[in-house]
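Final report, Chapter 2: Outcomes

The project's central promise was a pipeline that accepts a single protein chain and returns its three-dimensional structure in a standardized token representation, suitable for archiving and comparison. That pipeline is now operational. To close this chapter, we reproduce one record exactly as it appears in the project archive, with the input sequence first and the structure output second.
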Amino acid sequence: MRTKLACAVVAAGVLLAAAPASTHHAFSAEFDIERPLTLTGKLVRWEMINPHSWFHMDIENEEGELVRWMIEGGSPNELIRNGVTKNTLDIGIELTVEGYYAKDGTPKGVGRNFLLANGDRLFLGGSAPPVAPAVR
């Protein structure tokens, strides 16, 4: 009886170890806490998908060229609970995002807040810690 139980436990462990790992990640695996960002641009696309939503924004760089940025936000459920819906953010709206740059140097970041032209601040939830006071 003990041998059968031990075999079952080992088999279960092997099966669990062979299962694919979740694609969810921790903040520190992808984003840099030492590099807070503040970017202003136009919302061009919004993907409400799990486990994180993605906001695609056109943001002008120093040379005056538009660069398409991807900003990670919280899950759709979390965003809706925070009042961030397709009704509050229309495609084409200009907004400012506060968050953190990606470690890999691509035009990607994680958002903490959106600031709207009327002064409203929308919390994006997700993995981003509060934005540091000194933004680079």
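Archive annotation: The chain has a mean pLDDT of 81.
This record, like all others produced under the grant, will remain available to the consortium after the project formally closes.
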